[in-house]
Design a protein that fits this description.
binds flavin-adenine dinucleotide; Butyryl-Coa Dehydrogenase, subunit A, domain 1; 15% strand
């Protein structure tokens, strides 16, 4: 892929930051359950958090293409950040497109500087992947809204300042899609409660159940128009899929690079194991599939930036990237033999995250359903 001078310069900044805060630093933080704050602040200082925010709101006015390149390169260094996905890669994408000027002026410059951090809440235990079945409600009361409900698995809610949350302003029975609205909720508001949900995952972020117990927010906390949430959502969920695909590709390359280095050095039966076709071919195949996915993901991000329909590309890229990354993870584990299972080799910790992406933020089956219906024109899947 031919990158612009500016994109190459951004990647050089990421390489520099990754040299200061390498995977070793990230892993120590993740294992200690601490957020890698110095790394986050370095990204903020370098303008990375505001890359896709318009210049008039304090950002660089670039796009998802650059954001995805950053996610990919950070992951290639073994430094995946879910908050970079759910904040700048999802919530801020929606706000930049659909919030009022007033809301954008209030939130985006601070977000660009890293002073306000955003998480995103759509998932609920009872609705699962069926977003239209969410039960969180927002009811108007004078010039305020009152939000009630519980979101589940919310990444980074302890570190975030604000939650962009999906709520029902009209019941499912009356308005399936046009009953959803988006709100920005200050997580310090009275009535917000966080409950840590311990996960089997090596990550820089924790997940939380976030309960909104009659949380009052002002009228201006509503993003755009009431009832237009479903329409706005995919301007965030498609970027999220593209960002996650980018992280999967980056982690896949990281795993593959480590597998290749090990396969060159490790000698059994008098030859480096990388000399065996049984090892070399799966490594080569994983490389092909990762780079194919990278090209498609780049195309998906560019389609979004050109304001074209990005859904087909975003879903195809997400499935392709995660499959390729899982393939790379599996061969990396195979190549390392028993050492793959040794904590000091830090391989299974990478697999956990790659495997997560098969299920979240959108399950592989749901993405395939989308492709079946919207790309191939098949009947809606059951
Ligand atoms: C570590 C982590 C971080 C997360 N962070 C966030 C976050 O920050 N914000 C947020 O809102 N959510 C977050 N989530 C939630 C995540 O988006 C959901 O877990 C994911 O969308 C899957 O939903 P579910 O867990 O309810 O699975 P379910 O909907 O219960 O689905 C379970 C499985 O059933 C199958 N399935 C379901 N429906 C279909 C169908 N129609 N066709 C075929 N197969 C189907 C799929 O295999 C799927 O994996 C996070 C989850 C995890 C684990």
């Amino acid at each position: 892929m031919r990158l612009t001078e500016e994109q190459n310069a951004i990647l050089a900044v990421i390489d520099h930051i990754a040299a200061q805060f390498p995977r070793r630093y990230w892993l120590e933080k993740a294992r200690a359950g601490e957020f890698p704050e110095e790394l986050w602040q370095a990204l903020a200082k370098a303008g990375i958090l505001g890359l896709a925010i318009p210049e008039q709101y304090g950002g660089s006015g670039l796009g998802l293409t650059e954001m995805a390149l950053v996610q990919e390169r950070l992951a290639e260094h073994g430094i995946p950040l879910l908050l970079l996905v759910v904040g700048p890669g999802l919530s801020l994408m929606i706000l930049a497109k659909h919030a009022s000027d007033r809301m954008k002026s209030r939130l985006l410059p601070a977000a660009s500087r890293g002073e306000r951090v955003f998480c995103f809440g759509i998932t609920e235990a009872n609705a699962g992947s069926n977003t239209l079945r969410i039960a969180t409600t927002a009811e108007r009361d004078g010039n305020e809204w009152v939000l009630t409900g519980t979101k589940h698995f919310i990444s980074g809610a302890d570190r975030a300042d604000d939650l962009v949350v999906v709520a029902r302003t009209r019941p499912y029975a009356l308005e399936k899609r046009d009953g959803l609205s988006l709100f920005v909720v200050d997580l310090k508001s009275p009535g917000v409660r966080l409950k840590w949900e311990p996960m089997h995952l090596t990550a820089a972020e924790h997940q939380f159940q976030v309960t909104l117990d009659h949380v009052r927010v002002p009228d201006e906390a509503l993003v755009g128009e009431e009832g237009a949430g479903w329409q706005y959502l995919f301007d965030g969920l498609n970027p999220e899929r593209i960002n996650v695909a980018a992280i999967a590709i980056g982690l896949g390359r990281h795993l593959l690079n480590r597998a290749v280095a090990y396969a060159r050095e490790r000698v059994v039966f008098s030859h480096p194991i990388g000399a065996h076709q049984g090892i070399q071919h799966p490594l080569a195949e994983a490389k092909i599939h990762l780079e194919l996915a990278a090209v498609m993901n780049h195309y998906a991000a560019a389609a979004y930036d050109r304001q074209e329909e990005a859904g087909p590309w975003a879903n195809m890229a997400k499935v392709g990237a995660v499959d390729a990354a899982l393939e790379a993870a599996d061969i990396a584990i195979e190549v390392h033999g028993g050492n793959a299972f040794s904590e000091s080799y830090d391989l299974l910790s990478l697999w956990e995250l790659v495997r997560l992406f098969k299920t979240a933020p959108v399950a592989r089956e749901l993405a395939l359903n989308y492709i079946g219906e919207h790309v191939l024109g098949l009947p809606k899947a059951l």
